[in-house]
Amino acid sequence: MKIITTIKSVLFGAILFSTVAFAIELDIAKETGLVGEQQNGYLGAVVQSTEVMELINDINAKRKAKYQELATKNGITLEQVEILAAKKAYEKTEPGHYLQVNGQWLRK
Questions:
Q1: In a 3-state reduction of DSSP, which class is residue 73?
Q2: Phi/psi class of residue 104: alpha, beta or left (left: φ > 0; alpha: ψ in -120 to 50)?
Q3: Rounded to an integer, what distance in angstroms lies between the CA atom of residue 48 and that of residue 80?
């Protein structure tokens, strides 16, 4: 357990303080607490950095396109799909990952 925590800390530091720009993968970002699920169906930044924001913007653009496709296909609004997606994302969020609740980031 202590080794895993140490590895996560080193990885977290490397991601935050790297001078080399690189894409962060979603799983790693969630596992290290950089991003979390928001109540609007989209990712949010738990920790602010350029790399984190690039990841969030990319993922959220893809989510929004999919949500719009589902809304159109099912004859409902984008907002309705976002609400349903947020609920599903909260249910699927793994223990230890972050969720935004009433504007605060909390670990599940």
A1: helix
A2: beta
A3: 28
Rounded to the nearest 5 degrees, what angle is found at the Cα of 6, between the Cα atoms of 4 and 9?
110
Distance in angstroms (rounded) separating the CA atoms of residues 35 and 41: 13
For the chain, which residues score pLDDT lower than 70? 1-24
- Supply the angle between the helices 78-92 and 50-74 in degrees, to the nearest 10: 120
Q: How far apart (Å, rounded) are the C-alpha atoms in residues 108 and 62?
A: 25
Q: How many domains does the chain have?
A: 1
Q: What value, to the nearest 5°, has the Cα angle with vertex 80 and ends 75 and 81?
A: 80
- Give residue 37's domain range: 2-107
pLDDT tens-digit profile of 16-35?
443 333 456 999 999 999 99
Backbone angles phi, psi at 53, to 5 degrees: -65, -35
pLDDT score of 23: 53
Which one-letter DSSP state was computed for residue 32?
Answer: T
